[in-house]
Every structure is written in C-alpha cells, then in structure tokens.
Amino acid sequence: MKIYTQRIEHISEGSTFETVELSFDTRQKSRFRATLKNGTDIGADLPRTGILRSGSFIATEQGDILRVDAKPERLMQVVAKTDFDLLKAAYHLGNRHVPLMLTPSALYFEPDHVLAEMVVGLGLTVNEVEHPFEPESGAYAQHAHDHRLSPIKAIHAHAHH
Fold first, then answer.
1. Which GO MF term does the entry hold, naming one (predicted)?
2. Are residues 36 and 77 both part of a single domain?
3. How far lies 94's CA from each of 33, 81, 110, 141, in Å?
4. Which stretches does DSSP call E strand in 24-90?
C-alpha cells in the first residue's frame, strides 16, 4: 500500500498523478485510508497543516503524486429569489458556525433539519442534493507549508510573495 506523507503546493507541468475523491470529513483528517477508482488501497499520514482542498496534491516519499478532489456528498442546497435573501441566509447560517460553502447562486451545508427549517422560515428554498463540498475556511484560517527536504522538492518549488 502506498502511503502519502507530504503535501505539495505545485507540480511540474507534465507530471503524472492519480486522483482520489474524498469527502469533506476525510479531507479534514491528516491520517486516513482510501481506495482509488482502480481499486488500489492507499494511506495518508500527512502533516497537520489544515484541510485538503479539492485539487490539492499529496505525495509519497518515493515521489508518487496524488490529486485529491472533493467527492460529491449529500448536502443541503439553499437557493433564493434575490441575492439579498441569499446573503441573509449566509449571515444566519454563519452565526451558527457551521461549515458553509458559498457560490454566487447557492449555499451548501451538511444535512441538518433544524438549520434547513430556519432557512425555509426566512423564505428561501432548501433542497437535498449530491454535490462536492468545499466550505469556506474562515477568516482566521492559516496557510501553512511543510518545508522539510524531500525527494520531490523539485515539484514543491513555490514562491512566497
């Protein structure tokens, strides 16, 4: 089983990699097991430097690269007749400190009938959907890098601006 131990910022153009779709819950963990679409089991033992965002890359000590994508999962979708109504719903959901994904036309949160009833009470529409979940990281989230030397440092060449 391949074990992915490094987060990488960028990969070189033309690099080959496999992909895996993971739920938001799994992408929050630094240690997990998963199965690739081809049936291969993999493991991850990553530095605890935050959530794996959709499109993130991780690598093994040997330089094997894996792109992590957000897996579609069961979510509540909030839609509104006006932008202002959607903004109001985002405000009220944000006050509940729940992970919330914002898009220009909808809000998404993990299933919670109490929150859904609150939003419907505000005059918005709530639907249960299958959708990748990429919630906002929050105003206080930190962006961290792992600068330990590794065999793949050539593909971890990034600049701090």
1. nickel cation binding
2. no
3. 31, 20, 13, 15
4. 31-35, 41-45, 56-59, 65-70, 72-79
Q: Please give the distance of CA 151 from its chain centroid, rounded to a whole number.
A: 26
Residue with tokens 């897996």: 71
CB atoms within 10 A of CB 89: 25
- pTM, entire model: 0.78
In a domain, 8, yes or no: yes
| Position 95 in a domain | yes
> Residue 57 and residue 54: Cα distance in Å, rounded?
9
Q: In what order do the strands lie in the sheet with 56-59?
A: 6-8, 56-59, 65-70, 18-22
Domain boundaries, position 100: 72-132
Q: What local confidence, expressed as pLDDT, does residue 139 receive? A: 54
Give the C-alpha separation, 115 to 75, whole Å.
Answer: 12
CATH code at 26? 2.60.260.20
pLDDT in tens, 35-93: 988 889 999 999 988 899 999 999 999 999 999 999 999 999 999 999 999 999 999 99
